[in-house]
Specification:
Blueprint lengths: L2 E5 L2 E4 L4 E8 L7 E7 L6 E6 L5 E3 L7 E5 L4 E6 L8 E9 L5 E4 L3 E6 L1
Parallel strand pairs: 2-11
Antiparallel strand pairs: 1-3, 3-8, 4-5, 4-9, 5-6, 7-8, 9-10, 9-11
Amino acid sequence: QVQLVESGGGSVQIGGSLILSCVASGFAFDDSVIGWFRQAPNTERTLVATITRDGTPTYADSVQGRFTISRDNDNMIYLQMNNLKPSDTATYFCNARYGAGGSFSAWGQGTQVTVSS
């Protein structure tokens, strides 16, 4: 069974930091592309960051220089978030694309991040 489980969300003040974690199971993790997405109320889900199987990251312009995505050999994915802003408030989702050509996709249940003054 393919599964992604996020953790690490919470409430933080402006300028604070959080680390989100995602544990993956049920698919070939080493051959997958992993992404973090976020969705605020009444908005579309948008891409925050991705990391390829060889560890190459990409970031949305809005988080470049503040967020860091990483992965390890134990099926874990992380999102280090620094200098958080109110606009970062959202539910954060872990996504995996796996299989031949990344033809399969799986999502976690999400973890809430709230940034306030």
